[in-house]
């Protein structure tokens, strides 16, 4: 006798064969177009565009390493997005590569800025190389920290994100919270192109750890202007991660396993550089599954004619970013850092 509904669900997840998995003889471009349309549908995209209502709140120039610009814009009606753009001072202010920073399931984008505000932030930042924006400007590249929906000043709390209610509201509307976050990224790229001419629009990358890594994967899969992606501690099979374990509701997309596993999504990013970072001892995104999904990703990159553009970086610890190991690989595949 089995009274637990998870027994049946987990068996179905184990046996499922994603409908959008590319067959060996299928034309890659045709598959990519078909699969991309399906992913957009599952995410609930596109959303309604709004007048951007772009405004700069302040510019600070006191930091010897960078100029920081805080700005807001509207991504859809009644939805404002707050951002911090950091421009490095140690390089010419033209044709700058830009890396979008998506903080993980944390208290806000101030983590990416390396700016402790809430209790415990110092440990979060220093314990896992999570001050992404600071790392980027130190490399002579521009960084854009975006406050994600339900994090920080966009609905979060000093104790962390508050994703549940926005996520279920989105699901009731035929949308998804992760899709909404991807939409904000795409509209942020529109704003950068219009208002910040020092940015090289052909060299826009995206990165993030954990929940930020998840958003990185989906955003890169649906936004072709993203030229490179580096998700950390997020790339893993659905079953052993968010299927078998309880995760925040913001990770879930209705019917996603019917059509895709995570490795399939990499094919929607190909042939653009794709650097996947995992921790050897990450209990919530198990490394064995991450490696299996990376094999699927690498097959798709071979089909796309770019076998060297998908790389896997495995750090020796757990659920964190590994800056010293990851940035050299990112530099190698992008060729952006001279």
Key phrases:
single chain, 338 residues, alpha/beta, Rossmann fold, nine-stranded mixed sheet, 12 helices, globular
Summarize the structure.
The chain has helices at residues 5-15, 28-43, 121-126, 132-138, 164-172, 177-195, 211-222, 239-243, 256-259, 262-269, 287-303, 323-334; strands spanning 55-60, 66-76, 79-88, 96-102, 142-146, 199-209, 228-232, 274-279, 310-315. With 338 residues, it is an alpha/beta fold.
Walk me through this protein's architecture.
The chain has a single domain (26-334), classed as Alpha/Beta hydrolase fold, catalytic domain (Rossmann fold, 3-Layer(aba) Sandwich). Helix content is 37%, strand content 20%. Strands 1-2-3-5-4-6-7-8-9 form a nine-stranded mixed sheet, sandwiched between helices. The chain is built from twelve helices and nine strands. The relative contact order is 0.14. The protein has 338 residues and is α/β, with parallel strands linked by helices. It has helices at residues 5-15, 28-43, 121-126, 132-138, 164-172, 177-195, 211-222, 239-243, 256-259, 262-269, 287-303, 323-334; strands at residues 55-60, 66-76, 79-88, 96-102, 142-146, 199-209, 228-232, 274-279, 310-315. α6 packs across α7 and α7 crosses α10.
């Amino acid at each position: 006798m089995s009274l637990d509904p998870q027994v049946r669900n987990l068996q179905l997840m184990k046996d499922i064969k994603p409908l959008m998995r590319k067959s060996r003889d299928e034309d890659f471009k045709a598959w990519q177009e078909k699969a991309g349309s399906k992913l957009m549908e599952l995410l609930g995209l596109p959303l309604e565009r709004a007048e951007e209502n772009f405004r700069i709140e302040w510019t600070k120039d006191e930091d010897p390493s960078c100029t920081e610009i805080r700005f807001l814009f509207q991504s859809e009606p009644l939805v404002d997005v707050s951002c911090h753009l950091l421009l490095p001072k140690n390089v010419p202010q033209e044709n700058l590569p830009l890396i979008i920073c998506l903080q993980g399931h944390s208290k806000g984008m101030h983590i990416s800025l390396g700016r402790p505000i809430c209790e415990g932030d110092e440990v979060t930042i220093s314990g896992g190389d999570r001050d992404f924006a600071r790392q980027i400007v130190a490399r002579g590249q521009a960084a854009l920290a975006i406050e994600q929906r339900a994090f920080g000043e966009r609905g979060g709390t000093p104790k962390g994100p508050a994703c549940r209610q926005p996520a279920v509201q989105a699901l009731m509307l035929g949308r998804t919270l992760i899709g909404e976050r991807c939409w904000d990224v795409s509209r942020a790229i529109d704003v950068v192109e219009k208002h910040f001419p020092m940015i090289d629009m052909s060299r826009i990358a995206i990165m993030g750890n954990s929940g930020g890594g998840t958003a990185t994967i989906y955003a890169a899969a649906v936004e072709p202007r993203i030229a490179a992606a580096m998700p950390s501690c997020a790339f893993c099979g659905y079953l052993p991660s968010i299927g078998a374990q309880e995760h925040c509701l913001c990770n879930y997309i209705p019917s996603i396993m019917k059509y895709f596993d995570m490795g399939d999504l990499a094919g929607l990013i190909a042939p653009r550089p794709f650097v996947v970072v995992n921790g050897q001892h990450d209990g919530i995104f198990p490394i064995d599954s991450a490696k299996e999904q990376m094999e699927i990703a690498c097959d798709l990159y071979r089909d796309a004619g770019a076998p060297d553009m998908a790389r896997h970086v495995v750090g020796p610890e757990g659920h964190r970013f590994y800056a010293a190991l990851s940035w050299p690989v990112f530099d190698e595949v992008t060729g952006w850092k001279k």
